[in-house]
Design a protein that fits this description.
- By secondary structure, the protein is of the alpha+beta class.
- It has one domain (15-167): 2-Layer Sandwich (TATA-Binding Protein), CATH 3.30.310.
- Helix content is 38%, strand content 19%.
- A five-stranded antiparallel sheet has the order 1-5-4-3-2.
- Strand 4 (116-123) and strand 5 (126-132) form a beta hairpin.
- Helix 1 (24-35) packs across helix 7 and helix 5 runs antiparallel to helix 7.
């Protein structure tokens, strides 16, 4: 016996892709306008504040209009060209610890998939935003409280994706797409 036990839990993720008539650059700008242009060093914030209340206030002050904040951007397009793939591709990590805690309190392993990752791609002058539905990754066993919290995140993320990929102006967009349930 090795002293550790391995437990495997199979699950099936669901990938969503939102195609957009926007250019890649316009899609990137729309997303950053919704989540913030500068990555938030969330670990640094945690070290600076002792209480949940002070931490919560600081996090809330950094959340974008969508209810999410930017954590990191990886420019896959910057390196895949070296392998002969000429595409614009960004992997973007966004989240909100105030949303994440609603899931982590029910299953700490939900932290494998919070924050969430988006992939922005360019194809033939158009763009797309792709992600895996968080609840399809997090809820791998019966856990109604986790399912409820993760489904709320699914709704918020879908509203963000729809809003930033849409070519309809925010003023004429249905109210359900105005950062639905952002928690702000």
């Amino acid at each position: 016996m090795s002293g550790s036990d391995l437990r495997e839990t199979p699950f099936h993720g669901r990938r969503l892709r939102f195609d957009s008539a926007k250019s890649f650059d316009d899609l990137v700008e729309a997303l950053l306008g919704a989540v913030g242009h500068e990555p938030v060093a969330i670990d640094d914030i945690a070290m600076r504040f002792d209480s949940w209340e002070s931490y919560e206030r600081e996090v809330q002050s950094r959340v974008g209009p969508s209810g999410f904040m930017l954590f990191v951007i990886w420019n896959h397009g910057g390196w895949i060209g070296k392998a002969g793939i000429d595409r614009k591709v960004l992997r973007v990590v966004i989240g909100n610890p105030l949303i994440a805690i609603t899931m982590l309190r029910h299953d700490i392993t939900a932290g494998l998939f919070a924050p969430v990752e988006l992939l922005l791609t360019e194809e033939d002058g158009r763009s797309a935003l792709t992600y895996v539905v968080p609840s399809s990754l997090m809820v791998v066993e019966a856990n109604p409280a986790l399912l409820e919290a993760a489904t709320a995140l699914d709704t918020k993320l879908a509203a963000l994706a729809e809003a930033v990929t849409s070519t309809v102006s925010p003023e004429t967009r249905p109210s359900s797409l105005h950062w639905a349930g952002s928690g702000r």
